[in-house]
């Protein structure tokens, strides 16, 4: 009997280790979320798993606001309130009376803005 060399064993070729997907994640979705996923993946012409993989690759995660940055934002808000009060005083008493106070607050505003820019 003859033996056949390089006999086709059938099936697909083995994947490279880098191509194998070895992790499985299970998530729970509301019916409207699942319907949205199903519709969008169907429109894209790919299965739901591939659609989710592409969404993960294309997404950009923004950093949460740090407590320090939130403190700077509160300071800016308070300073904006002070400037509004100065404007009322300037209209009532005249501009020269509040000029020095306005320059002082302007310097503090510049300091806070530069701290926010450094944090971002």
Task: Describe the protein.
The protein is built from 4 helices and no strands. The protein is elongated, with a radius of gyration of 31 Å. The protein starts with 30 loop residues before the first helix and ends with a helix. The protein is 64% helix and 0% strand. The chain is mainly α.
Short structural summary:
This protein is mainly alpha-helical and 120 residues long. Helix content is 64%, strand content 0%.
Task: Name the descriptors.
120 residues, mainly alpha, 4 helices
Strand pairing plus helix content: what structural class?
mainly alpha
Strand content: under 5%
How many distinct helices? 4
Helix content: 55-70%
Shape label: elongated
Residue runs with pLDDT of under 50 for 5 or more positions: none
Helices and strands, with pairings:
Blueprint: H1 31-44, H2 48-58, H3 67-93, H4 95-119
Helix pairs in contact: 1-2, 3-4
């Amino acid at each position: 009997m003859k033996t056949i060399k390089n006999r086709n064993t059938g099936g697909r070729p083995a994947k490279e280790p880098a191509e194998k997907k070895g992790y499985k994640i299970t998530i729970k979705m509301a019916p409207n979320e699942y319907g949205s996923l199903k519709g969008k993946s169907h429109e894209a012409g790919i299965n739901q798993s591939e659609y989710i993989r592409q969404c993960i690759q294309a997404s950009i995660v923004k950093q949460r606001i740090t407590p320090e940055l939130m403190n700077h934002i509160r300071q800016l808000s308070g300073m904006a309130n002070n400037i509004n009060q100065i404007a009322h005083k300037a209209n009532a008493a005249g501009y020269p009376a509040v000029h020095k106070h306005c320059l002082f607050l302007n310097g503090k505003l510049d300091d806070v803005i530069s701290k926010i820019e450094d944090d971002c």
